[in-house]
Specification:
The chain has 127 residues and is mostly helical. It folds into two domains: 74 residues, Protocatechuate 4,5-dioxygenase, Chain A; 31 residues, no CATH class. Helix 8 packs across helix 9.
């Protein structure tokens, strides 16, 4: 089966999973509040504790989600890290599309206006 390549898109496959294992393991640790606090107290030491590469550490320090994805980060794990940085889903989408957050939100709103979700069939009443 051939893979369809999308320019600028990083495929999370087994190679990316191996590359990003330490990064994703660190992000998973943020499920515990004490770990989030330890990270905020000393980011470099916390990254070293998990064995992040220098490229991964630079991406963490620069708050660059696209670089984190390129370094094997899985967006579902990175969401915890993004939350620590004070970033939300719209912030991540704006980074991924190289848009300002406001432009990204406007694009989402425009899409929603012209592409309403399909209506769900009525459930039969039981009464």
């Amino acid at each position: 089966m051939s893979q369809r390549l999308i320019p600028g898109t990083h495929i999370f496959d087994s190679v990316a999973a191996r590359k990003g294992y330490a990064l994703n393991k660190m992000c998973y640790s943020f499920n515990d509040k004490r770990n989030r606090e330890a990270f905020l107290a000393d980011e470099e030491a916390y990254c070293n504790r998990f064995g992040l590469t220098s490229a991964q550490q630079r991406a963490v320090k620069s708050r660059n989600v696209l670089a984190l994805i390129a370094e094997g980060g899985n967006v579902y794990y990175l969401a915890k890290l993004a939350g620590i940085f004070g970033l939300n889903v719209q912030d991540l989408g704006a980074q991924q599309t190289n848009m300002s957050v406001e432009d990204f939100k406007d694009k989402l709103s425009a899409y929603a206006r012209f592409n309403p979700p399909p209506l769900r069939p009525q459930e039969p009443s039981h009464g």
